[in-house]
Structure of K Homology domain-containing protein:
Amino acid sequence: RGKLQPSDFRWRPGATPSVMPMNSEPMGPRGMAPMGGNPRTHAKFVVATQVAGWIIGKQGRHIRELQENSGAHIQVLKEGEVPPGVSPTDRVVEIGGRFDARCEGIQIVLMAVDSMPALQAPRETLMLVPKVLSADHEIKDVHMMSGAEIEVRDLPGYDEALCTLLGTIEARVKAAQRFLTRIEEVVTDGTLPADTG
């Protein structure tokens, strides 16, 4: 631990987006539809209920802090809003916003989860990725880039697959960021329609 600090990944261009109108909703300081924020390109993670509670924190303080530190919009979906085949008690965490903010959001959220009090910081990361990215050559690419082991579970009747990322926290962060880059690429080049949902 201690090799990667969230501040190492802070590529903040000049002014940070602090020009939000005052009437923007209290929970999402970066707004619901940030610039370049396409819901199809959100990073999505599946976490246990207690991990979701840790991410949100007392009165939502922790999630606000994570959003401010990354510039990303971080949202924990309601209980029950999980794909078929995923445990109904698990929760989905979505990270949206500009591409660089999403990359940083992934790093900050995964490292925050990794630093959970001793009890049960998970040693694996579950990420939902478009089915097109669960093909063998895509998984090999992410493995080569990150060093993380990746197990894929198909979710029948659903357009995303559940990937389990295994390895050090650094490897898991790199793997998730690589998946995010590929999601961005397949949406941009039209392989994955941007507006299906």
Notes: The longest strand covers residues 124-130. DSSP finds five helices and six strands in the chain.
